[in-house]
Each structure stands twice: as structure tokens, then as C-alpha cells.
Amino acid sequence: MIDGFLALYIFMLAAFTGYEIIARVPVILHTPLMSGSNFVHGIVLVGAMIALGHAQTPFETAIGFIGVLLGAGNAAGGYVVTERMLEMFKSSKPEAGKGSH
After folding, report:
1. Number of domains into which the chain is organized
2. Is 54 part of any domain?
3. Which of 21, 43, 65, 78 is a plausible cystine mate for 38, CB 3.0–4.6 Å?
């Protein structure tokens, strides 16, 4: 029972610390930060797949499946958001030499 409380305490501490760190990131660094977090989301997805592979009970299988589903959605959504953010930095002016005369 103590292990469960310790794991919950570590999770809550990590969530609070992560929120405080991300809240203090300047706007100019959000795109590189998103790129790095997409990498971490991929690692989380791999961990969820490994956990699902080691599941033995139906409850563990359900939790593992939900973990894989949420991890995949998080990773894919992160790449979509990063792509949209990078599109905002592209120039809307046509380049010289390109286009019809």
C-alpha cells in the first residue's frame, strides 16, 4: 500500500514541477520545446506498448490499451501542433523568381 502512495506522490510532484517549468518558458522557445516533448511522447508510447505486452490480467490489459491509445494520440497530436506552429513562421509573400509572369 505504501508503494502506491509513494508512486502517487511522485506522480503528483512530477506533474506540479512540469507545470511550473512549462509555465515559465518564453514564447519564442515553445516550438523547440514542442519538438523535444514529441520525442518524450514517443518514448512514453513505447513504454505503454511494453507494459501492454507484459499485461497478465484483463484489468492490466485494459489499462495498457488505454495507455497506448492515449500515448499514440498525444504523440500524433504533438506533431500536428508542431507542424501548425511552424507554418505560422513561413512567409506569405511569393518568392522572387517563382510564379507566373
Report:
1. 1
2. yes
3. 78
Q: What is the pLDDT of residue 40?
A: 78
Q: Can you list the residues of the chain whose pLDDT is less than 70?
A: 1-2, 27-35, 93-101
Phi, then psi, of 49 in degrees rounded to 5: -65, -40
On whether residue 69 sits in a domain, the answer given is yes
CA–CA gap between residue 60 and residue 66 (Å, rounded) = 10
Q: Is the pTM of this model over 0.70?
A: no
Q: What is the tens place of the pLDDT at every residue in 37-51?
A: 777 778 888 888 998
Domain region containing 40: 27-88
Say if 65 falls within a structural domain.
yes
Give the containing element (helix H, strand E) for 63.
Answer: helix 58-88
Contacts of 44 (CB under 8 A, 6+ apart): 71, 74, 75
83: in domain: yes
Altogether, the residues listed in the chain come to a count of: 101
- Which one-letter amino acid corresponds to residue 89? F
